């Protein structure tokens, strides 16, 4: 009767949970370099390419931002072994070459070290950086990098 139905329902729930766990990393290959992947419980078409990064690749950091600007990635701030970073680095997505951005020596405070911030591109040349943390102090300002 009722106990058997409850046991069946519980068994089915366990099977569903097991299938959901198994399908978390489900990858279905399709043509070419495109793959159908299940990410965040939604299907995504993902195109992946292996590439070799060149020059001095920025490593050993966390709490930085990585923002796309056309065919470049912009890495700003973060923290690592050497305290907070004030670096602004570009990666050319056609050559996979990392370069340092030049900050005028006359304006050393124009790009202070920062972590835990958010950045977004506006148009083709402006990156907005909001909030963050500098030396343990929370920031609520907006910086425009042009």
From TrEMBL:
Keywords: Coiled coil. Residues 2-29 form a coiled coil. The keyword Protein transport does not apply. Gene3D superfamilies: Kelch-type beta propeller. This is Galactose oxidase. It comes from Tetraselmis chuii.
